[in-house]
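Let's practice the habit of predicting before peeking. Look at the sequence and jot down your guess about where helices and strands might fall. Then scroll down.
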Amino acid sequence: MRTNFLSLIMLGCVCVAIHAEDSSAIFWPGTVQPWRSTDLYGKDIAYVTAVLHDIGDHVAKGELLGRLENPELISRWDQAKSQLLQAQAHVQVAQGQVGAAEAEVKLKEVSLNRIKNLVGSEAATAQSLDEAQAGRDVATAHLDQSRAEEYAAQKAVEVAMAEVSRIDQLLSYDAIRAPYSGVITRRWVNIGDLVTAGGGLHSTPLWNIQEQDRLRIVCYVPEKDIDFVHRGAIVQIEGPHGLKRQARISRSSRRINENNRGIRIEIDLPNVDHFLVVGSYVRVIPTMKTPKM
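Done guessing? Here is the structure:
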């Protein structure tokens, strides 16, 4: 009887030792998250005029999802465009005035030089020379003024063009496009809805897009299993129906969470074949006990 009792004690010790080194009985619950998830908002207050994609649609980067329309912004663009055309017309008028002033200066210069020659031969008076010089100076001053007006008109064109470009940029935001290739997972809007600018207190997103061809598995490793955790450690991801896929730990928080006493780890996993569904739970199974790095 004593022999059997000692045998049981020895057997129990052996079992405990095997359990400490065997990782097959260890697993950590994990959550499947998309590689990227983005809520798409409008830039300004506008009406929805087109909804081109719905929940479940696969879209490519830059693909048009829908359109918004802001009547006030369109009116501001029309006004800015009109001001630009007026400024460009003023430039043409100013350029014509500069040309006329330049011709006037040349004419006055020719007249002044002729009178200078006549004064030298005493065929003209000094008063005539003074009047010719005064006429040339007046023409030169008028030319300087015309050039200043042309410069001001050119600057007005630049300001008007900048305003048109700024409103053009705002209008471009009314075309809602996919920031990357992914799947539409939520749609909050319908044609005719009035939407507000993103980031506001009561703003509502238009669509949610997720990149699901690559996933991020997030789980918290208990403190007792900390020796399993280091970047590059091999694990098994067990999905639905016991299907498994090998992966590596991509990153670790390297700190114990005060609430659940676990270390957050993340595992990047290709999902082109839709092995896993976003939001589902999986089991993360370490393949062997390895020292921390």
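How did you do? Residues 1-23 have pLDDT under 50 and may be disordered.
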